[in-house]
């Protein structure tokens, strides 16, 4: 086909080649006459077809013949036959894509006779009865300080820990070990091995170490993948998984550490009160003495913490020395020859028969492996104590892996060593009576064989509960040790060191959380004091929480919750490592290589299992609190971007889904409008954006587009500056849309680029939405040609096209720019008290006046508007943002465009803002057959399952318009008419050459009927839809090279003049509705 140039000097669209989609060649036949209802309804021949059910049938349907509506290119392209437009009847189906057999749809079933044919059932027999037949047929990983830890028998630990502002203090390993070595080591370890035996006891310790070791490996990988700042576990989780996970676990973890202070202090106070009770020195009562001693202790610990990290570190060194001496004291005591009194209490030197007897488990009082494990595991939850002060470490990346893993190794070996020594020297039951010895001829059997072989008869313990032995006495470590008071001192050291570590950890983690401003109400606690930025306010808050729980006096119910809080942190640390590895982000490059993503995932699952093993209701409570905090942060959407692995996985998943979707052929049932909205800046045309957003909501693609017109050197800077700003505004204003901009020499070139290149795979726009150019009569020739050219391009690229017109216009850019300028001036004034240069997120880029004036305004009012007009414009611009009043959406479905004209208003009625607006459908009908046309349309709408309150058939559209209405059109186009008919041929040719864009008399004559139709339609619209909330009208198509740009604009203008908000819609003539399942 010959390529033509469009009227008015428009250039050819290089993106469309009409030879690829030739109009069909229609056969001359007597029986192919124009359908009377088409001619009679509109008063002239047209290739456009009125809506008809046959257009929506599947190929091979037996209930009716499938018809093919004229394609968009047949209506839009230039093609002539014998000098006239060919107007065929409904085009027969060419059976494309069909093998000649009926397709598998509801209507394909071959009808049968009543006798012996297919029997169909109602809902009772077919659904209800058939259904019956079917029916019957460990505080955080230390932010490692330690550089060296040398272990020897004579001098176990030598550490040099570099802190940011402390020269020679303890390191990560020290802090972790102090937190792991707790009262469990001296009070409960012997009981655990007495119940489980040293065989299962080793499993208990090893399983605990496995959990902490895996977590330590994951922590090491995370902390070596970038600079680690203050906040410990919170910092690492939040930077890996994002603020939602980090914010929820950070608050839980800080609170758990604060309550842990009370737990450790109460443990210390109970030991002190026991000593006071033994010496008859109680002050008031046992519970009140615990409260008094606890409050005094926490005040002293607070004073040490507030004094600074240097004093806290020195205190930790002192406590470590006491604790190490106490541990050594246990080992030494096992080699000291025992007295007869100790033997009667079940304590001997190393004996192989005792060791073998203690191998097997002997669970009593309803205990089991899991209950014993639940009691021991909190002793292993101290691995994050060093990491919590990561902000005070000089090199957290080196310190955290070394200190944490070494602390796990040392404490694990210590627990095993102490437990095995006790298992080899202490029997499970003993009477404490020195006279219970073996007499001659007595046979050793029962549960005390080892003691019997050593000369003691403890067989009475099988009948009556004894007071001594590893199961019965929690002070076994004191009795086994070489010097009992050292064990008491070690117990004091363990409890106070853990309390001090938690008292420092909680404010540090809480301060880091508050600095990120995830919970805005907590930002008050972000402020630090002194050279080390000490969180004094956080210390005070932690002190208040601790005292509150100390006054309770009994934390047995709360203890499991705290252990579960710690385990939840471990689980997320492991999951963070797995998630970051799984995302395969190029930014995931940890220096620590000894980790495995699947091992981390197993560690996360193991932590979750352990949570339920320890206490199932506490685990559920932990998850419930974490989910609530997660949802809160998710809803609030803090303005942070840490490059989390969640973003990376989302990207990978999006790419994978897009690729999967690209391999699936589009189906009419899954069609949804994907809108390319020419809004300009995201804030320039809010009414257009709001209506587009109502159509797509969260379920379709919406792209707000802007074209920067002018030389690239002048427009590129402004475009780049506005990209993030506009997308941020869309997100903050809760418009689920993307922003896209291009810089081109002309508006049409930019729009053409957007039409061709926007989207990805199947997620590409299929509908262009643009505002009506209200000022087309004054905008100039190039502006009108550019605007109409965009509409032609959209049809060429087979986009559905939607034009929105409102009485007051759409463009509020001049108001927005004025507001931004005022805000920027105020911001500059606030940020430059000393004449400094302001630099803010919304800083307006400086651009020349020339560039400002070249921004294309599709439907913008003059820049000089009085306040009253601006107020009306602003009010009109927000009309689609608020809930629509009760009323109607009037759909004038005049031409069958595939159903887009009906689908879009239906989608609107499903939105909350439009639920009170009812659909009314108007169609063109032939005089004398209105009722038949109405029934046909009613049947079609019912098959589409679209509810409408009324269907109106208008049989007066073909009536000529009134003289007054036509006079308005004549006045409208008068400046753009050539009036060449009164001139001779030469003059007329010269005039057409000089003004090729003007409307010729021949053109007016050729399209007189179609012009009259637009004028008449406006009259009918005024009569029937003047009070509608929204009017939907089938958009007329201007055939390229046949209809001039100004005449087409006049059609659109006169059609929608003086009406409520109006949408002109033209689909791409491919079905978007179907009545098949």
Automatic annotation (TrEMBL):
Domain Amino acid permease/ SLC12A intervals: 173-676
Catalyzed chemical reaction(s): K(+)(out) + 2 chloride(out) + Na(+)(out) = K(+)(in) + 2 chloride(in) + Na(+)(in)
Membrane topology recorded in Swiss-Prot or TrEMBL: Multi-pass membrane protein
Keywords annotated in UniProt: Cell membrane, Chloride, Glycoprotein, Ion transport, Membrane, Phosphoprotein, Potassium, Potassium transport, Sodium, Sodium transport, Symport, Transmembrane, Transmembrane helix, Transport
Residue intervals of the Amino acid permease N-terminal domain: 33-100
Gene Ontology CC terms: apical plasma membrane
Location, primary (coarse class): membrane
Compositional bias ranges of the Basic and acidic residues kind: 1-14
Listed Acidic residues bias regions: 91-107
Domain SLC12A transporter C-terminal: 685-1077
One Pfam assignment: SLC12
GO biological process: cell volume homeostasis; chloride ion homeostasis; potassium ion homeostasis; potassium ion import across plasma membrane; sodium ion homeostasis
Membrane-spanning intervals of the chain: 141-161, 173-194, 200-228, 249-269, 289-308, 317-336, 369-391, 403-427, 483-506, 539-559, 565-583, 595-618
Cellular localisation: Cell membrane
Signal peptide stretch: none
A GO term for molecular function: sodium:potassium:chloride symporter activity
Segments for region (Disordered): 1-37, 83-112
Coiled coil feature spans: none
Family membership: Belongs to the SLC12A transporter family.
PANTHER family for the chain: SOLUTE CARRIER FAMILY 12 MEMBER 1, SOLUTE CARRIER FAMILY 12, CATION COTRANSPORTERS
Name assigned to this protein: Solute carrier family 12 member 1
Organism, as annotated: Gasterosteus aculeatus aculeatus
């Amino acid at each position: 086909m010959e390529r033509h140039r469009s009227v008015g000097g428009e250039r050819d669209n290089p993106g469309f080649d009409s030879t690829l989609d030739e109009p069909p060649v229609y056969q001359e036949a007597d029986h192919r006459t124009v359908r009377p209802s088409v001619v009679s309804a509109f008063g002239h021949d047209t290739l456009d077809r009125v809506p008809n059910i046959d257009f929506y049938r599947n190929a091979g349907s037996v209930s009716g013949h499938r018809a093919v509506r004229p394609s968009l290119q047949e209506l839009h392209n230039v093609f002539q036959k014998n000098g006239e437009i060919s107007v065929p009847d409904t085009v027969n189906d060419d059976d494309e894509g069909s093998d000649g057999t009926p397709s598998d749809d509801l209507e394909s079933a071959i009808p049968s006779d009543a006798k012996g044919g297919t029997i169909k059932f109602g809902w009772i027999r077919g659904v209800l009865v058939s259904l019956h037949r079917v029916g019957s047929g460990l505080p955080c990983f230390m932010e490692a300080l330690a550089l060296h830890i040398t272990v020897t028998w004579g001098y176990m630990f030598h550490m040099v820990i570099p802190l940011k502002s402390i020269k020679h203090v303890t390191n990560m390993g020290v802090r972790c070990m102090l937190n792991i070595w707790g009262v469990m080591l001296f009070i409960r370890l012997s009981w655990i091995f007495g119940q489980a035996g040293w065989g299962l006891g080793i499993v208990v310790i090893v399983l605990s170490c496995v959990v902490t070791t895996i977590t330590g490996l994951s922590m090491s990988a995370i902390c070596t993948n970038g600079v680690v700042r203050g906040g410990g576990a919170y910092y690492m989780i939040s930077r890996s998984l994002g603020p939602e996970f980090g914010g929820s676990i950070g608050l839980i973890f800080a609170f758990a550490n604060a309550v842990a202070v009370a737990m450790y202090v109460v443990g210390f106070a109970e030991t002190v009160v026991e000593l006071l009770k033994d010496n008859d020195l109680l002050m008031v009562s046992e519970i009140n003495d615990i409260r008094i001693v606890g409050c005094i202790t926490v005040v002293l610990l607070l004073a040490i913490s507030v004094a600074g990290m240097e004093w806290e570190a020195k205190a930790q060194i002192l406590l470590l020395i006491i604790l190490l001496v106490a541990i050594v004291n246990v080992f030494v005591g096992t080699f000291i020859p025992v007295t007869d009194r100790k033997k009667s209490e079940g304590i001997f030197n190393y004996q192989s028969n005792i060791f073998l007897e203690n191998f097997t488990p002997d669970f009593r009082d309803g205990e089991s492996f899991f209950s014993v494990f639940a009691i021991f595991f909190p002793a292993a939850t101290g691995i994050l104590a060093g990491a919590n002060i990561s902000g005070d470490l000089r090199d957290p990346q080196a310190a955290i892996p070394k200190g944490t893993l070494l602390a796990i190794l040392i404490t694990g070996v210590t627990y095993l060593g102490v437990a095995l020594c006790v298992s080899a020297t202490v029997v499970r039951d003993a009477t404490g009576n020195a006279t219970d010895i073996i007499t001659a001829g007595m046979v050793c059997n029962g549960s005390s064989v080892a003691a019997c072989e050593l000369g003691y008869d403890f067989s009475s313990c099988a009948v009556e509960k004894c007071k001594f032995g590893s199961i019965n006495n929690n002070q076994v470590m004191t009795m086994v040790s070489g010097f009992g008071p050292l064990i008491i001192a070690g117990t004091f050291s363990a409890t106070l060191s853990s309390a001090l570590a938690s008292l420092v950890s909680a404010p540090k983690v809480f301060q880091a959380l508050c600095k990120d401003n995830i919970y805005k109400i907590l930002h008050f606690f972000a402020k630090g004091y002194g050279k080390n930025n000490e969180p004094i306010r956080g210390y005070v808050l932690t002190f208040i929480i601790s005292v509150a729980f100390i006054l309770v006096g009994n934390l047995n119910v709360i203890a499991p919750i705290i252990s579960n809080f710690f385990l939840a942190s471990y689980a997320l640390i492991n999951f963070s490592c797995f998630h970051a590895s799984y995302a395969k982000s190029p930014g995931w490059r940890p220096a620590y290589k000894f980790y495995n993503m699947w091992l981390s995932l197993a560690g996360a699952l193991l932590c979750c299992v352990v949570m339920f093993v320890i206490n199932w209701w506490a685990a559920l409570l932990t998850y419930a609190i974490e989910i609530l905090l997660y949802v809160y942060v998710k809803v609030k959407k803090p303005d942070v971007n840490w490059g989390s692995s969640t973003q990376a996985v989302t990207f990978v998943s999006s790419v994978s889904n897009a690729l999967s979707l690209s391999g699936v052929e589009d189906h009419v049932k899954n069609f949804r409008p994907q809108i390319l909205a020419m809004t300009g800046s995201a804030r320039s045309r809010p009414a257009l954006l709001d209506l587009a957003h109502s159509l797509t909501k969260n379920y379709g693609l919406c792209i707000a587009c802007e074209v920067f017109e002018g030389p690239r050197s002048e427009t590129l800077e402004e475009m780049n500056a506005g990209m993030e700003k506009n997308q941020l505004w869309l997100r903050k204003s809760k418009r689920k849309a993307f922003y896209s901009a291009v810089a081109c020499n002309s508006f049409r070139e930019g729009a053409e680029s957007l039409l061709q290149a926007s989207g990805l795979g199947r997620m590409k726009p299929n509908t262009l939405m643009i505002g009506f150019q209200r000022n087309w009569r004054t905008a100039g020739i190039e502006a009108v040609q550019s605007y109409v050219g965009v509409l032609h391009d959209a049809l060429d690229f087979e986009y559905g096209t939607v034009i929105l017109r409102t009485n007051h216009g759409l463009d509020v850019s001049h108001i927005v720019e004025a507001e931004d300028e005022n805000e920027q001036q105020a911001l500059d004034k606030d940020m430059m008290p000393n004449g400094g240069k302001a630099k803010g997120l919304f800083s307006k880029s400086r651009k020349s006046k020339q560039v400002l004036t070249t921004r294309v305004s599709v439907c913008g009012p003059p820049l000089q508007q009085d306040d009253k007009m601006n107020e009306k414009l602003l009010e009109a611009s927000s009309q689609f943002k608020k809930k629509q009043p009760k009323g109607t959406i009037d759909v004038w479905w005049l031409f069958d465009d595939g159903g887009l004209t009906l689908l879009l208003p239906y989608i609107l009625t499903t939105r909350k803002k439009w639920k009170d607006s009812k659909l009314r459908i108007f169609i063109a009908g032939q005089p004398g057959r209105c009722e038949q046309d109405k029934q046909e349309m009613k049947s079609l709408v019912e098959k589409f399952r679209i509810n409408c309150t009324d269907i109106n058939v208008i049989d007066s559209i073909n009536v000529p318009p009134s003289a007054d209405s036509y006079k308005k059109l004549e006045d409208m186009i008068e400046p753009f008419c050539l009036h060449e008919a009164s001139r001779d041929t030469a003059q007329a040719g010269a005039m057409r050459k000089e003004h090729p864009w003007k409307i010729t008399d021949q053109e007016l004559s050729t399209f007189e009927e179609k012009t009259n139709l637009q004028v008449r339609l406006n009259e009918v619209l005024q009569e029937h839809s003047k009070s509608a909330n929204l009017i939907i009208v089938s958009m007329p198509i201007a055939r390229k090279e046949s209809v001039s740009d100004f005449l087409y604009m006049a059609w659109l203008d006169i059609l929608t003049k003086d009406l409520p908000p109006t949408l002109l819609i033209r689909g791409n003539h491919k079905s978007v509705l179907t009545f098949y399942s």
